Amino acid sequence: MGEFIAFSFVMLLVLAGYWSFVILPRQRMFRKHNKYVRTLRVGDEVITAGGIVGTLTRMEAERGIAYVQIAEGVEVKILTAALSRPFDPEEVAITANLGIDPTADQRLQQRGAQH
């Protein structure tokens, strides 16, 4: 009986650890992304999950579809789940230089503290 209780306790600890280190962070990211998508407006510049930069031209939120203009006369239909983040040229430039410029990491952290 004591072994069963000890085993059950260990399993509960494993499940609690899995929940707190895997499930909860994913739920937080999902909520944060949904909040971001709900704040998007036509004309916002976005970066897709594939790294494509474009301008949001319209959105069908109930269907989970967004239309993004990636060049003059070129509009693509993508899932709202693929809208990664807002396009900020300065942040993208800093991020691109992380491995090259030793001050890039510090500048990126300063930008994060300002927002």
Give a structural overview.
This protein has 115 residues and is α+β, with helices and mostly antiparallel strands. It has a domain at 1-39. It is flat, with a radius of gyration of 21 Å. It has a five-stranded antiparallel beta sheet with strand order 4-3-2-1-5. It has three helices and five strands; from the N terminus they run αβββββαα.
- Written as H for each helix and E for each strand, in order along the chain, the element string is HEEEEEHH
What is the helix tally?
Answer: 3
Question: Structural class, from secondary structure content?
Answer: alpha+beta
Portion in beta strands: 25-35%
- Gross morphology is flat
Radius of gyration from the CA trace?
21 Å
User: Low-confidence stretches at least 5 residues in length (pLDDT < 50)?
Assistant: none
| Distance between the first and last residues' Cα | 55 Å
- What do the pLDDT scores average to? 87
- The helical percent reads 40-55%
Which strands sit side by side, in order, in the main sheet? 4-3-2-1-5
The major beta sheet can be summarized as:
5 strands, antiparallel
- How many extended strands? 5
Membrane topology: Single-pass membrane protein
Pfam families: YajC
Organism: Candidatus Thermofonsia Clade 1 bacterium
Family: Belongs to the YajC family.
